[in-house]
Amino acid sequence: MKRVQYEHSIVPYLFIAPQIIIIAVFFIWPAGQAMHQSFLLEDAFGLSSQFVWFRNYEDMVWSEPWLQSAIFTVMFSALVTFLSLALALLLAVRANEVLRGARSYKTMLMWAYAVAPPVAGLMGNLMFNPLIGDLYKGLNWAGWDFNHNIDAFDATFVIVLISVWKQVSVNFIFFLSGLQAIPNSVMEAATLDCRSAEKRFWTITFPLLAPTTFFLLVINITYAFFETFGIIDTTTQGAPGGATNTLVYKVYADGFLGADLGGSSAQSVILMIMVLTLTVFQFRFIERRVHY
Amino acid sequence: MNQSLLRTLTNHTILILGTIFMGLPVWVAFMSSTHAPETLFREGLQFWYGGHFFETYTEVLFVEGGVMKKVTATKMLLNSMVLGFGFSIGKVVISMLAAYAIVYFRFRLAMPLFWIIFMTLLLPLEVRIVPSYEVVAGLGLLNTFTGLIVPLIASATGTFFFRQFFKSVPEEILEAARLDGASPLRFFIDILVPLSKTMIAAIFIIMFVVGWNQYLWPLLMTTSEEHYTIVIGIKQIYQVLSEGGELPQFQKAFALTILATLPPVLVVVIFQHWFVKGLLESEK
């Protein structure tokens, strides 16, 4: 906070009021509702409801689909995070080295940030469409008995590919700026001591990038959890048989399409706890980064 | 010398492959959108220009489509524009005001209010879908721009962004302003807002793209086709493209994805400098 500040009784409240009012109506109220509903069991017509303590949670956690979805989400997030970080890091290191065309490469590798996940999903959907999609035909021609409408592995392959494509650009921008922040003198000293570019990368550059990498880890996990909703909804929609349901997609599918309010709310509360954990992790980490 | 030449060659090869990986889907989508449906059906995806550009795009832009046959791409683009601008302007205004109060004033509820704003980071829309829908429906805001935009603009990201920036503004400026007798409002409008111009531009660009790309919330909020944004409209239209036993109109689906992609991509590419600045700053 500032040392010099205005002291005023009403003015600050007027300035902060718009945001607080919107938060109260559209964030706190619904979140409270979610908590409340997660303890209720409604009948099929929504006419009466009954307080059931943690039964929704028990039903949820012990149910096969939820566990399956939780396992899938973790695997999916790990894959998307690892692949998009690795690819972005490779491209950023190379883009940081070239002299000619550096700016054009930068533009060509970052514009995809602006593509909405569902639009990316639809494009992928069309590329993999059995009627016209060359990718579908190509993979089958190459001997892979590929059908993402039936096979869980193939469906996962499709959404991982699209999710990675969509996420590379953000990671690229952050890695590139991280690389450019490394002082030239450090790199020059390293070059004198070690001739192997690969060894230099793993012993000098990569450790120096650690703060960026950790930070991006959180961003990417959040992305894989939440923002891939649009990709899944425009490609597999959880099919085949719920094999590609992420936890977030399941909240939507159960609550909106399946009208199980109690169960959906209980899942929401669990997700809130997950976000809380990630945020605490992120903030603790950022504190450390300041000292770094 | 030879080794560094090799390194340069590998660098360019990898970067070009990366560029192709990123660009190919959009390239193919655009080229395929310029072909007749028969060609697509017979030959699959297209990699070169097909000469049906005007037919496809005029039809998509001006002829009503969708389940109820009530919406054109022009209308959906317009809706997306309203969402993009409404979201970014609202976000900038609200978060600047809140950040100003938090940084420049000493008041009793400062800490609790700051934590309330912070809490929104823990409550992404995805985890409170059903109750949020019920609240907005209860207020009678379904199918309105108010219901579409306002719930989206309250999250904390913008506020943290401006809070960070205001804290970096030298204290002497406020001291000087106070000696000259500037009121809080005057200081804000005459000094702080002009000082923040670049920051406003940066966050505005990010937020326009984020607003334009909203999917889940518009999907829940809009049930009538006249309110579809392009991002959610595509999926609805895609689902009815092949109805009635006719040849699926894939070229239209491709055209719609291109139309939905073009505006935000242009914004990011044209204002690249501010965009990158905003992105790097906002995530700190």
Task: Describe the structure in your own words.
The complex is a heterodimer of chains A (292) and B (284). With 292 residues, chain A is mainly alpha-helical. Chain A folds into two domains: 11-51, no CATH class; 57-291, MetI-like fold, CATH 1.10.3720.10. Chain A has 13 helices and three strands. Chain B is mostly helical and 284 residues long. Chain B has a single domain (68-282), classed as MetI-like (MetI-like fold). In chain B, helix 1 packs across helix 14. Chain B is globular. The two termini of chain B are 40 Å apart. Strand 1 (6-7) of chain A pairs parallel with strand 1 (105-106) of chain B.
Poorly predicted regions of chain B: none
* Overall radius of gyration of chain A: 24 Å
Query: How is the CATH topology of chain B named?
Result: MetI-like fold
Q: Name the shape of chain A in a single word.
A: globular
Summarize the structure in short:
The complex is a heterodimer of chains A (about 290) and B (about 280). Chain A is mainly α.
Fill in the keyword field for this structure.
heterodimer; A: 292 residues; mainly alpha; MetI-like fold; 2 domains; two-stranded antiparallel sheet; 13 helices; 3 strands; 3% strand; globular; B: 284 residues; 73% helix
Topology diagram in text:
The complex is a heterodimer of chains A (292) and B (284).
Chain A: E1 6-7, H1 11-37, E2 40-42, E3 49-51, H2 55-61, H3 64-97, H4 102-110, H5 117-127, H6 134-141, H7 152-180, H8 184-193, H9 197-208, H10 210-227, H11 229-234, H12 247-257, H13 261-291
Antiparallel strand pairs in A: 2-3
Chain B: H1 2-33, H2 37-43, H3 53-62, H4 73-104, E1 105-106, H5 110-119, H6 129-138, H7 145-153, H8 157-168, H9 171-179, H10 184-195, H11 197-212, H12 216-221, H13 230-240, H14 250-270, H15 272-282
Helix pairs in contact in B: 1-14, 3-14, 4-7, 4-8, 4-11, 11-14, 11-15, 13-14
